Please model this.
Amino acid sequence: MAFWDNLKSKTQDLNSGLKTKVGQFKNKDFANASMAMCALIAAADGSIDPQERSKTAALITSNDVLSIFPPAELRQTFDTYCDKLQNDYDFGKVEVIGVISKLKKKQDQARAVLQIGIIIGGSDGNFDEHERKAVKEACFAVGIAPAEFDL
Model:
């Protein structure tokens, strides 16, 4: 139970800190990387169940951190990445990781995208091993040590 309490607390802290930072990240690369991260989390176990996709999309459009972007555009981008992951998971994964890796030279933005992944992954009360692995892979893509996020 201590792990879950710790994760819940960290998620709340991440969310609060992100709200103040994200306003300065209002650009297409950040928006795309955020949606790629969300799609990667939704497909972390190798498939995307329609209910999970719908719940993740609802979280995206209602998330305060992402409210600086038009919700319809976020949803469309998220759906595009989900479709790629559903059609060919391995190839789609390479593509979404590539989108995330575009932030490698923008470490503050990359950290924010990783934090969004953690928030989305933990939103159902279970940040499972597949979701943790997906965030770790994104960490490596942007050159940030997973240990920074206790992964």
